[in-house]
Write a structure and sequence with these properties.
Shape: elongated
Helix content: 55-70%
Structural class: mainly alpha
GO molecular function, one term: ligase activity
Keywords: Ligase
Pfam families: DJC28_CD (PF09350)
Protein name: Threonine--tRNA ligase
Radius of gyration: 23 Å
Length: 119
């Protein structure tokens, strides 16, 4: 893939040098990135309607709740409130794992390592 990228970059550079990319229609305009290329074309309209209606998939809501609970657990000191929040976090983790047919424990470990590396 690196060779393909090199050839593409070389051809783009040559076209820029020759002025072939000057005054193209849409130059300086923002790109329309509303369509998700990973969504099949026949489902894009339905997804756009749901998105415009403010619908959020249950998995996204659960991930938001998971992140909020994780922050809460880290902010609480040892005690009853923290243990309750940790129990709820475990249950939510299992539910998310079922939604995705996977376990979040590996992802959580990866996430914490990534977070430590970035901070």
């Amino acid at each position: 893939m690196h060779a393909f990228e090199s050839i593409a970059e070389q051809r783009i550079s040559e076209a820029v040098a020759k002025g072939e990319l000057d005054n193209l229609p849409g130059a300086g305009q923002p790109l329309n990135l509303d369509d998700d290329p990973l969504v099949p074309e026949d489902l894009r309209l339905a997804y756009r309607i749901l998105k415009n209606a403010g619908y959020v998939p249950p998995e996204v809501e659960a991930f938001k709740e998971f992140a909020d609970l994780e922050r809460l657990v880290h902010s609480l000191e040892e005690g009853e409130a923290r243990s309750q929040a940790m129990k709820k976090l475990r249950v939510l983790s299992l539910q998310l794992g079922e939604l995705r047919n996977t376990s979040l424990q590996v992802e959580a470990g990866y996430y914490s390592q990534l977070l430590n590396r970035l901070t």
